[in-house]
Amino acid sequence: MDDRCPLPEDLVLNILLRLPVESLLRFKCVCKHWYALIKSPSFIEKHFHHKNNCARLLVCNLKVAHEGHTIVKSVVVSLVPEKIVPGVTPEQKTILQLPRVSDFTCVAGPVDGLFLVQKKFYGDDVCLGLWNPATREFWPLPPAPFEIEFFFSDHDHQFGLGFDLLTQDYKVVWIRVFWDEPGQSVHPQVYACVYSSCDNSWKKLTPEFNASCTLSAPLDSTYLNGVYYWLSRGRDEIYSIRSFDMGSEQFGEMQGPDIPSELWGSLTLRGDSLTMLAGDPGKPMTSIYDVWVMNQEEGSWYKIHTVQPQIVAHWPRGFWENDKMIFEINETSQLVLYDPTTSEVTDLGFQLDLSIAGCWVFNYKESLAPIKRGIETQGQDNAVEQIEHFFDIIPIDRKPLLTVRRTIRIKSGFFVQTRNFV
Amino acid sequence: MASSSSSSKTGLKKMLTLKSSDGDEFELEESIVIQCQTIKHMVEDGFSLIPLQNVDTKTLTKIIEYMKKHAEKTESNKEEIKNFNKEFVKGSFDDQFELVSAANYLHINGLMDLLCQSIADRINNKSVRAVREIFNISNDYTPDEEEKVRDEHKWAHEGGEFDESLD
């Protein structure tokens, strides 16, 4: 028999931390000790932050297609390799493909490699799910306890996904603004709930802020050190920052950067800093963007640089490697990477559907983080099936027997979506 | 002014002796050996003969080879060092484990990093059974328990062919 001593624990750890998520999930089968090690929160955290676990671009591309009188959506989620060679379209890896779904509204995150997905937009219909693409775990959230009256109409909503550092709990905060008594004097009301993944339940919150403020969705995740941030704009058009503390479950407000109200602005994360991108997007060759970064201790904002991309009409979609920016190109519907130091434009190889606000670009690192803490995980392996079920994949041979028309709102304007019932 | 700097100016290099667990002695320049944090601390404490009870001659020879090469590291020979590293990690798993344990004991961070990465790369596509053999781990699951753990992430076991070889 072999008399070799096994390696000391710290060396085994040092080796395992360098492996990708898929291999680690397989190696849970090696022995009970490795199982416990790979499942431990401290391992999961170290693995997520390990230098080998590089950030990559994850792109969610939503398209609509007309099939006769019906509209069918399709969603493709792809990963771009960590090294993007300037001028060379990278080879993307598809990680999720939903060819015909009746609905897909949005995807938000990531926080520790987890995403929040949404289907439907109105009233009680809205469904949310948490998804870890690396472990292929998916968890549909229970319905939130919004008491929606028949006369309410959805005006706006925002999500925030974050982590309560004290209780080690993933939380989702959901803010909804409803207009009540439509046609008379308008009374926008703000409601909010928070979901805890430990309890798998929602709790009602009392958001003490004015419904006339509009919160805007960030370019990427804006969760940082236990707090989620949104860009807010009141009737006075002045930008400020709203926040939600995942631990204390309190909303907060703070000053935004001093930006002229006519400029467009959006929040994102850039490295470990809350960042605001402000500018006049869309104009060919002459758009100018300012990048502002918040000092977390002082809460003050600094302009760190200005970018004037020498490209045709476009819309900003995010940052890559601190200084590079991602744009969608209006005319060609391409997604491109722009390097301001060399002015080089790299096509990322996506064909977008600009008729719908359906492209999300994230800085993503894979993670072992479990969604279902304390919830029975058995028999929940096949996430693809669960996601397909969640988004209601329409089989090719399903014949529409009854067509119900519904209206859903997208980024700019309205369009009619038809839904088929069999 | 400082005596240590004047000695290097005159070309008088301070030498140290490393003694393996087999009793073999290796004489080396201090400037090479201080890559190793454990020895560096002993040198600072005034030792010049350093007994290494946990490192045998075979392993120590390899480690000295590594330290000598890496002491030559400059801006211009990066490619050469890269090729050296590539050759250095080519041994069997047993040899790599001996080396990484010694590097751990001696606190040679660069070598630890190199070896752990190489081992990780080599086991990444191995089967569960091969990994058990390589790490000399006995399977403490009952067949039922193992099946249950496999079922938690079935897809991770179905991603193509896994390497059953032990090298």
UniProtKB/TrEMBL annotation, chain A:
<dbReference type="Pfam" id="PF07734">
    <property type="entry name" value="FBA_1"/>
</dbReference>
<feature type="domain" description="F-box">
    <location>
        <begin position="7"/>
        <end position="47"/>
    </location>
</feature>
<protein>
    <recommendedName>
        <fullName>F-box domain-containing protein</fullName>
    </recommendedName>
</protein>
<dbReference type="InterPro" id="IPR017451">
    <property type="entry name" value="F-box-assoc_interact_dom"/>
</dbReference>
<dbReference type="Pfam" id="PF00646">
    <property type="entry name" value="F-box"/>
</dbReference>
<dbReference type="InterPro" id="IPR036047">
    <property type="entry name" value="F-box-like_dom_sf"/>
</dbReference>
<dbReference type="InterPro" id="IPR006527">
    <property type="entry name" value="F-box-assoc_dom_typ1"/>
</dbReference>
<dbReference type="InterPro" id="IPR050796">
    <property type="entry name" value="SCF_F-box_component"/>
</dbReference>
<dbReference type="InterPro" id="IPR001810">
    <property type="entry name" value="F-box_dom"/>
</dbReference>
<dbReference type="InterPro" id="IPR011043">
    <property type="entry name" value="Gal_Oxase/kelch_b-propeller"/>
</dbReference>
UniProtKB/TrEMBL annotation, chain B:
<dbReference type="GO" id="GO:0006511">
    <property type="term" value="P:ubiquitin-dependent protein catabolic process"/>
</dbReference>
<dbReference type="InterPro" id="IPR016073">
    <property type="entry name" value="Skp1_comp_POZ"/>
</dbReference>
<dbReference type="InterPro" id="IPR001232">
    <property type="entry name" value="SKP1-like"/>
</dbReference>
<dbReference type="GO" id="GO:0009867">
    <property type="term" value="P:jasmonic acid mediated signaling pathway"/>
</dbReference>
<dbReference type="GO" id="GO:0016567">
    <property type="term" value="P:protein ubiquitination"/>
</dbReference>
<comment type="function">
    <text>Involved in ubiquitination and subsequent proteasomal degradation of target proteins. Together with CUL1, RBX1 and a F-box protein, it forms a SCF E3 ubiquitin ligase complex. The functional specificity of this complex depends on the type of F-box protein. In the SCF complex, it serves as an adapter that links the F-box protein to CUL1.</text>
</comment>
<dbReference type="InterPro" id="IPR016072">
    <property type="entry name" value="Skp1_comp_dimer"/>
</dbReference>
<dbReference type="InterPro" id="IPR016897">
    <property type="entry name" value="SKP1"/>
</dbReference>
<feature type="domain" description="SKP1 component POZ">
    <location>
        <begin position="14"/>
        <end position="71"/>
    </location>
</feature>
<comment type="similarity">
    <text>Belongs to the SKP1 family.</text>
</comment>
<comment type="pathway">
    <text>Protein modification; protein ubiquitination.</text>
</comment>
<feature type="compositionally biased region" description="Basic and acidic residues">
    <location>
        <begin position="147"/>
        <end position="160"/>
    </location>
</feature>
<dbReference type="InterPro" id="IPR036296">
    <property type="entry name" value="SKP1-like_dim_sf"/>
</dbReference>
<comment type="subunit">
    <text>Part of a SCF (SKP1-cullin-F-box) protein ligase complex.</text>
</comment>
<feature type="region of interest" description="Disordered">
    <location>
        <begin position="143"/>
        <end position="167"/>
    </location>
</feature>
<keyword id="KW-0833">Ubl conjugation pathway</keyword>
<protein>
    <recommendedName>
        <fullName>SKP1-like protein</fullName>
    </recommendedName>
</protein>
<feature type="domain" description="SKP1 component dimerisation">
    <location>
        <begin position="110"/>
        <end position="156"/>
    </location>
</feature>
<dbReference type="InterPro" id="IPR011333">
    <property type="entry name" value="SKP1/BTB/POZ_sf"/>
</dbReference>
<dbReference type="Pfam" id="PF03931">
    <property type="entry name" value="Skp1_POZ"/>
</dbReference>
<dbReference type="Pfam" id="PF01466">
    <property type="entry name" value="Skp1"/>
</dbReference>
